[in-house]
Amino acid sequence: MNRRNFINTSSVTVAGAMVSRLVASEQPQRQIRTNWAGNLKYSTDNLHTPKSLAKVQEVVKNAAN
Question: 7, 15 in Cβ contact below 8 A?
């Protein structure tokens, strides 16, 4: 392998690794949660953390049936 081929191959390898990391970081990471006892694990895409009663009412009102 000559120098030019080595540089081309190396740059493609490094660029591919960087692109795959960027693509992986753009996808939302699901956080694994546990219940209060720690014996059940779950995850969700729809986690609401309302700070007031009015916000709780809004979340419940807008929830899909």
Answer: no
Cα–Cα distance measured from residue 1 to residue 4, given in angstroms and rounded to the nearest whole number: 8
The Cα–Cα gap between 24 and 26 comes to: 6
Average pLDDT over every residue of 17-27? 57
Rounded to two decimals, the pTM is 0.39
In single-letter form, the type of residue at position 46 comes to: N
Calculate mean pLDDT across residues 47-56: 89
The CA–CA distances, whole Å, from 27 to 21, 32, 37 equal 10, 15, 30
The encoded tokens of residue 60 equal 């419940």
